[in-house]
Amino acid sequence: MLKRLLFISYLLLLCGCKQEKKETIVNKTNTRSTLIKYANGFSIQNQSNGITIIRVLKPWANAKTTYTYALVPKELQASVTLNKNEYDAIISTPVEHIVVTSTTHIPALEELGVLNQLIGFPDTKYISSTAT
């Protein structure tokens, strides 16, 4: 009986000494807001760890929803953990491919010189760009 009690005590002691797993979540300690001169409805915060947070405050007229995106450089992806519930999307940068849903996005891609990264569009019937 004493051996059994000693064994159970030893087992409980081992279970009690188990190291707790902790999830690493990136602290948003040092942030710097980017001054936006010619646009409104969104904000950009650059964190000291290289992650950029974009908040779209008014995605459309009379909108009550705010969208939050985390832009994470590819070289940091393996070393950081973000709470996915805090963001509407976590985007790896630089963006290599894009799908657009409106023809109004195409001229901006042409102007930026990244039209070759466009890989999808719902319907080509109304595209007037000669480059596409």
Strand order of the largest sheet: 1-2-3-4-5
Percentage of β-strand residues? 15-25%
Low-pLDDT ranges: 21-26
| Helical segment count | 2
* Global Rg: 25 Å
> Residue share in helices?
10-25%
The secondary structure category is alpha/beta
Cα(first) to Cα(last) distance is 83 Å
Q: Residue-averaged pLDDT, rounded?
A: 82
Helix/strand order, N-terminal first: HEEEEEEHE
Question: What summary fits the major beta sheet?
Answer: 5 strands, mixed
Shape: elongated
- Number of E-type strands: 7
Number of domains: 2
Topology record:
Elements: H1 2-16, E1 31-33, E2 42-47, E3 52-56, E4 67-73, E5 89-93, E6 98-99, H2 106-112, E7 118-120
Parallel strand pairs: 4-5, 6-7
Antiparallel strand pairs: 1-2, 2-3, 3-4
Question: How would you explain this protein's 3D organization?
Answer:
- By secondary structure, the protein is an alpha/beta fold.
- It has 2 domains: 29-94, no CATH class; 95-132, no CATH class.
- The chain contains 2 helices and 7 strands, in the order αββββββαβ.
- The strands form 2 sheets. A 5-stranded mixed beta sheet has the order 1-2-3-4-5, with no helix packed on it.
- The longest helix is centred in the first third of the chain and has 15 residues, at 2-16.
- The model is unreliable at 21-26 (pLDDT under 50).
